[in-house]
Amino acid sequence: MDSFVIDGGRRLSGRVRINGSKNAALPILAAALLTTEPVTVRDVPALDDIANMLRLLEQLGCAQVPQGAEDSAGVIRLRTTDETVSHAPYEIVRTMRASICTLGPLLAKRGYARVSLPGGCAIGERPVDLHIRGLKALGAEITLEAGDIIARAPQGGLKGTTIFLGGANGSTVLGTTNVMCAAALAKGTTIIESAACEPEVVDLAKILIAMGAKIQGAGTPRITIEGVDQLGGTDHTVMADRIEAGTFMIAAAITNGDMILDNCPIDAMLAPVYWLEAAGVHVQPVAALAATGVGRARGAGSLSLTSGSATTGAVGGDDPLRKCVRITTDRVLRPVEITTQPHPGFPTDLQAQLMALLCLADGNSVVTERIFQDRFLHVAELSRMGGRLVRQGPTVIISGVRELVGAPVMASDLRASACLVLAGLAAKGRTVVNRVYHLDRGYERMEERLRSLGASITRVEEKVAATMCTVPA
Ligand code: EPZ
User: How far apart are CA 37 and CA 235, in angstroms?
Assistant: First the structure.
């Protein structure tokens, strides 16, 4: 197992491109199961979760087609050529619970699916009752056997209907993607009420529509799908990763840096941008700067959501999901009070990263987690670094301190590991983040990209890191 050794206190500056979104790419790759024609997906990040999904799809008869010489990194060409195996086994699903998003496509296209129950994970229970509710409503017969979900379509196939898909904690992202994929090939019209509004659901709807699906309302709580007989192939570029973008924004802010983000999906992250601005972080759309690096932002406007949303000055590109933005920070960070919510609220996937930043705010912040009740494993580790945090059930009170101090810490899940890396970048002295395999699931070459921005961060084997916990005299 690898660790990161981070010597903190360096201001990050420079320019980084935001990669394609892991959470958009996973259901989009699974959608290739809905057709036997070729599907090309571009800007797919090179992550462990993606590799696991491609391994699963190959087992399901949907293999990668040899790359054309002209294909750049991140281009995945898939084609389903064998529909006889429709079992997503536990040994893959337990490593990547998002495998559940193959359930809807398999059921819709093949009339049968056997997918291992994902089980829980470090951030809490990960039930799939809403997925099952939605697929049953379309007429599927669903049983649970030996830890697997077994789903069968009725004679004549799935039938469209109206489904309320809301749960105790609100909407379900992958539950919505599963039902949307299944409904795309059902007979008749399906209405999904209380659908997830996440941008990744919208991106999936875009590729499904390009494949021939008839979908309206993606991105709103009510999605209407008119079933079609079959879907075809297409070529789709994955949206930029809003959680990675937010993570880099916080990396700039926590080191009082000055960073340019290319390919930033600013229009999908108005909530995190609002709260970062409230904390004293500035997110400015800028004209795409010359490749030479970070110049003074020309015509920099201020995407100041606190005073109207007009942006002034030139901005890079017209696509609000692929903007060029510059991140700077006030000298003193201000405390904020946030609660994680389904989109368009503050995303749970940025809660841990924001908490690292708030450890250095001038005052007391309050963070309440409403999506995953156990998503606080990073709190104890931040305390080891001198953070002052007190948990009361779903809420953590963070009393800002003047500085964090480097220490050996343990990553427990994907976003907690990002939080600890961010804290290490700002901390005085050396931080060793262990078990960074969690980070590799969702961030591509993170240490290389942070190093290119001026961070002192190296990847070493855990046993070597154990000998490096203190900075040599
Ligand atoms: C997606 O997970 C994301 N993963 C998660 O990102 C993200 O945290 C989550 O959505 C919420 O935004 C991918 O897209 C691959 P949910 P998903 O179903 O779809 C409850 C990351 O860090 N629920 O929207 O599995 C559930 O317990 C990962 O990148 C039910 O009760 O999450 C939770 O409280 C972590 N029954 C809430 O809904 C169900 O059947 C939201 O879960 C399903 C979910």
Answer: 11
**Distance of alpha carbon 294 from alpha carbon 301, whole angstroms:** 16
Q: What's the chain's length in residues?
A: 473
Catalytic residue among 62, 101, 121, 181, which? 121
- For residue 173, how far is its CA from the centre of ligand 1 (angstroms)? 6
Is the CB of 353 inside a 6 Å radius of any atom of ligand 1?
no
Among the ranges given (42-56, 110-124, 251-265), the one the predictor scored with the smallest mean pLDDT: 110-124
Kindly state if the Cβ of 128 falls inside 6 Å of ligand 1: yes
* Residue 117, Ramachandran bin (φ over 0: left; ψ between -120 and 50: alpha; else beta): beta
User: How many beta carbons lie within 10 A of that of residue 291, not counting itself?
Assistant: 7
Ligand 1, atom 3: nearest CA belongs to which residue?
Answer: 23
What is the atom index within ligand 1 of the atom nearest the CA of 413? 22
Of 123, 112, 63, 121, nearest in space to 86 by CA: 112
Q: What is the pTM for the complete model shown?
A: 0.93
Q: Give mean pLDDT, residues 375-396.
A: 97
Nearest CA to ligand 1 atom 34: 371
Q: Would you say 412 and 438 are in contact if contact means Cβ atoms under 8 Å apart?
A: yes
Rounded-to-integer distance, Cα 218 and Cα 302, Å: 29
Judged against a pLDDT cut of 60, whether residue 291 lies above it is answered with no
What are the tokens at 163?
A: 């489904």
86-136 per-position pLDDT tens digit:
999 999 888 888 999 999 999 999 999 999 998 767 787 788 999 999 999
Crossing angle for the helix pair 129-137 and 103-110, to the nearest 10 degrees: 20
Per the annotation, the verdict on 419 as an active-site residue is no
Residue 68 in this model has a pLDDT that exceeds 80: no
d(CA 373, CA 188): 38
pLDDT at position 295, please? Answer: 41
Q: Whose CA is nearest to atom 42 of ligand 1?
A: 172
**Ligand 1 touching residue 262 (CB < 6 A):** no
